Amino acid sequence: MSAADAAAAASGLSSFGLMERAGRAVAATALRHFPHAHRFIVLCGPGNNGGDGYVAARALAESGAKVAAYAFGAVEALKGDAAIAFAAFASSALPINAYTPHDGDVVVDCIFGAGLARPVPDDVADVMRCVANEGLPVVAVDLPSGVDGRTGQVLGESFKASLTVTFMARKPGHMLLPGRSLCGEIEVFDIGIPRRILEAGAGSVTVNGPHLWPQLDHALNPSSHKYTRGHLGVFSGGAFATGASRLSATAGLRSGAGLVTIAGSVAALEVDTTHLTAVMMKEIDRGEDLAHWLEDARIHAFVLGPAFGDLERARQYVAMLRERRLVLDADGITAFREKPQSLFELFADGEVRLVLTPHEGEFRRLFPDIAEDEKLSKIDKALAAAERSHAVLIYKGADTVIASPDGRAAVNDNAPPWLATAGSGDVLAGIIGAHLAQGMPAFEAAAAGVWRHGATAAKLGEGLTAEDLAAAVVPLAR
């Protein structure tokens, strides 16, 4: 966004004109959401975010609202557009540490915005704590001050906003935790930067959604049959751990795979057959059994890991599946915690055919050095891991990131909190497996799977179980 701002100014657009539109958007939003505020307190920083604040303060005063401005840093030191904005405000700004909260105040936070790269100073942190203690509503401009716009991490202290006003596009800090939980409602305003300039600086990171898989959902046609819709193989755990594979298999069928087969021991399959009808069963109890099964090229993709249990056998089976499309989840990931490089080497060549689905703990087992690098955002970590493993990474959590070895990444934002329930990850693995079996490229298969997973949970509502989720997978939106 910083690059887009600079490019817009270089193209001949008035940088102060952009600031004027931004500040007036903030004022209009504050008035719309808090029409009964007794007083608007505009806290202004020393940079352009503060300049937005002085424009907003002027617009609020012109509307007839009661306004008081407070500055972090000497206003005499303001430069460029921020200095012009302060001069146009034509009023004073008291030092920020002079602010005393009162009932009826609405705080407009224009101190730091998205570009903060160091912990907030003590006097600003004191104000943040006072505002929080009084329970005052906060309208944050660009991002709540204290939140790193690149990583979403809190740099010492931050405001918790009721509402965040940002410009042109959301930033990583709006999407990644904990920043996401501090922004409140987010409103994005177009302040006039041309789309071509914005896209030139946007890179390959986006919000997850159907725009990532256009024309890849393979709509059925009259000549379709079960094999053209893809055959998915799901490996079962032992006789007392079969539920996870059933969730994956059911989700795979519901997600469009023409055939789904559960592979496991006779004891496990005897349990599975009492619960499933449309899913086929295949006895696979040894490497030799799997080798024979793999002679059938019509099995297009596999899911291995959910409640699998036997880590040594998991490593053996993964090695045999190295030429196939594979979703590796749960125990399948844990099986390689001692020697993760041995997994990466199996899938190092050719098309990307491995999808890894680690949660935080599993990610640390496979990529300990990347996980511990505090300079990296979750997006950065996912991209580094995807490149190292030559796999698509689904770095799970409330702010799930999907990353590809080619540098693309998507942050998911449609998953409700009640999706955090036992077995939901097994369902996700089955959805992605079905997409792979139908021929979707690995990144798009993973992104679409995560999106469908969240959309299904949102449709079902609070209190869902993994069984509900697997049985109700929503259609794949285009």
TrEMBL record:
InterPro entries for the chain:
Carbohydrate_kinase_pred_CS, CARKD, Nnr, Ribokinase-like, YjeF_N_dom, YjeF_N_dom_sf
Give the protein's recorded name: Bifunctional NAD(P)H-hydrate repair enzyme
> Any idea what job this protein has?
Bifunctional enzyme that catalyzes the epimerization of the S- and R-forms of NAD(P)HX and the dehydration of the S-form of NAD(P)HX at the expense of ADP, which is converted to AMP. This allows the repair of both epimers of NAD(P)HX, a damaged form of NAD(P)H that is a result of enzymatic or heat-dependent hydration.
List the Pfam families: Carb_kinase, YjeF_N
What is the species listed in this Swiss-Prot or TrEMBL entry?
A: Pararhizobium capsulatum DSM 1112
**UniProt-annotated binding residues for AMP:** K396, G397, A398, D399, T400, G425
Q: In what residue span(s) does the YjeF N-terminal domain sit?
A: 1-199
Residues recorded as binding (6S)-NADPHX, renumbered to this chain, are 48-52, 113-119, 142, 244, 359, 426
